[in-house]
Design brief:
Length: about 280
């Protein structure tokens, strides 16, 4: 566990305790988030070169957005083998990457599926690419202000995280901003630079907390964190020691047929099928 991860873990735990005490003292009625852990049902191979930024499940296949400049991609992946069935690089044209006016290459981020179209965010470029699900042909490009981190679709709206404590609600056909709302935990706004990859399931938005082993369940109706998933025991000490500091938990995909989740991390060699169950003790 890195020093930053340890500090964030301690901070999150102490924040929950402190906020609970404040709420009790001031007679606030904020509910304490449920404490959950991932129950591992199966383990599958995952490309250890994939810097996972977005993950979703559709019709028996995983779709993955991977980041890093010069290495970003959109992928179709076989669950059982981890084989990349199709890969589309996400990069600027060569003429934009060289010369005195050269631009930095794209850094791909979150991924969502809307009516047969994949929408992929970029980190700092303010562009979201739209692809045909079947062919990966690029169909359109949306623009937006701010950064792109996580993205998910609930069948009505897109939810977009951007490195702030806020989620942006967007029109799935135009990507226009409808409203932004704060994510709160027991009445206090969540810290910046935490909300990362997202997954929409029912009334909840699941969000990885960047550089931690925690996932939060956010009630999309009011922005309150209603559950905290502690995934610190997902990796053994030996597995964690073999990873680089940037190889953090990231990537959540829900399988509605089995009501299970697939979770992995950046540069992780494994992907886990899990259910989130109450923490014992």
């Amino acid at each position: 566990m890195t020093a930053r991860l340890a500090r964030l873990t301690i901070l999150l735990s102490s924040t929950l305790l402190a906020l609970g005490a404040v709420a009790q003292a001031q007679s606030f009625s904020f509910a304490t988030p449920a404490r959950l852990v991932p129950q591992v049902l199966a383990t599958y191979p995952h490309d250890p070169q994939a810097f996972t930024q977005g993950l979703l499940w559709h019709d028996g296949v995983l779709y993955e957005s991977t980041g890093l400049r010069g290495q970003s991609s959109l992928r179709r992946v076989d669950l059982q083998s981890g084989e990349v069935l199709e890969r589309r690089p996400v990069s600027r044209p060569a003429e934009q990457l060289s010369g005195p006016n050269a631009l930095p290459d794209y850094f791909a981020e979150g991924l969502a599926l809307v009516d047969g179209r994949l929408i992929q965010l970029t980190w700092t470029e303010g562009e979201a690419f739209v692809y045909d699900l079947a062919t990966f042909e690029r169909l359109d490009t949306y623009t937006y202000e701010g950064e792109g981190w996580g993205l998910c679709y609930d069948g009505r709206y897109l939810y977009h995280s951007d490195g702030t404590p806020y989620l942006s609600l967007r029109d799935p056909q135009t990507f226009e901003l409808i409203v932004k709302f704060a994510v709160t935990i027991q009445g206090q706004t969540l810290a910046a630079n935490l909300l990362n990859e997202l997954e929409c399931v029912g009334d909840l938005v699941y969000g990885n907390l960047w550089q931690t082993d925690f996932i939060v369940q956010i009630d999309k109706r009011d922005g309150q964190v209603v559950g905290i998933i502690d995934a610190r025991e997902l990796l053994t000490a030996e597995e964690r020691a073999a990873l680089s500091p940037n190889a953090v938990l990231n990537g959540i995909a829900h399988n509605p047929e089995t009501d299970t989740f697939y979770i992995t991390g950046k540069l992780w060699p494994k992907l886990y099928e899990v259910r989130f169950v109450p923490m014992s003790g």
